[in-house]
Amino acid sequence: xxxxxxxxxxxxxxxxxxxxxxxxxxxxxxxxxxxxxxxxxxxxxxxxxxxxxxxxxxxxxxxxxxxxxxxxxxxxxxxxxxxxxxxxxxxxxxxxxxxxxxxxxxxxxxxxxxxxxxxxxxxxxxxxxxxxxxxxxxxxxxxxxxxxxxxxxxxxxxxxxxxxxxxxxxxxxxxxxxxxxxxxxxxxxxxxxxxxxxxxxxxxxxxxxxxxxxxxxxxxxxxxxxxxxxxxxxxxxxxxxxxxxxxxxxxxxxxxxxxxxxxxxxxxxxxxxxxxxxxxxxxxxxxxxxxxxxxxxxxxxxxxxxxxxxxxxxxxxxxxxxxxxxxxxxxxxxxxxxxxxxxxxxxxxxxxxxxxxxxxxxxxxxxxxxxxxxxxxxxxxxxxxxxxxxxxxxxxxxxxxxxxxxxxxxxxxxxxxxxxxxxxxxx
Length: 427
Fold this sequence. Notes:
alpha/beta; 4-stranded parallel sheet; globular
């Protein structure tokens, strides 16, 4: 597709989305839920065709030399598709917040002033690798009464096309506009440039991918952007703590899956428990082939662990998102140093404390400046599905409009509504 054709195609997608957004916004809850349940059924029903399309993408990715984590993100396994279907059902079961009026209060003049939750309108979603994002974005778009334009990565184009066809079927079966969710069919990167520069059609852009993609979009977009750059997540083992619990949780936070942005990449350990905790934790990581990049104090404690892959950490390691079986490890004096380290090096995604001291837990929750902050559990829970949002459009590390996993409410806005009975303003 040449440049004029791409420009024309994107213009058409924008116009169609804008028209569809008005119909999506006024759709009753029952109709939106019908579409979501239809989509869940189609995902289960069309498992074989979806995996056949995905196999084409996986084979092309292997030929192109994509590595393990990238291939892992690309796979549409039965478990991944079942999670997508369950997300649709969870969203359908949730209350419809569109049209909800909050904070209605009567003023001295007699008028009543409140705020109504309304759809944003049209959002553009630009993502890489994970084809399941097509379903997450589409289902949230439907539930929140928005229209959306999706542009997936070229490596997942066949999977995304197959999934988008099911979304259109589900929309039409419920009587919603087919253009309520549209997939950009070209893999030409020029399409992204047009999508992020159409404020007349698109109300917000949500990028989900690597730092290069998100930095480009943040720099060039002519519409607002909801973004996060990295997932450098921390687990801090406090003194005092339940050592057995900390071993289990930190293991899960790092090794349950290496490629997601909510996997722990940095482990901080209070000096008072380091000698007891680190050799045992190191043995777990050694058995699973995790490389530990350690500060001098942690290095001394870990070197004696049989089979451990331990190297000296560099300054860059403290701020690196590995997305691989690699972990930075640092011994800190205690809570104050842990919080200071996290707030300096974290990407603002997710941090967890393992502690039995309630006061320490409360300070950690208050003072750590990240979008999700946890006590005695795995950072891997930082996910829209696990938070009961049904699905997520992404995880925002911005501080305005949406922060953390972006679900239905993150795709809405509030407008003021004023109710009166003939009041007029005097001098």
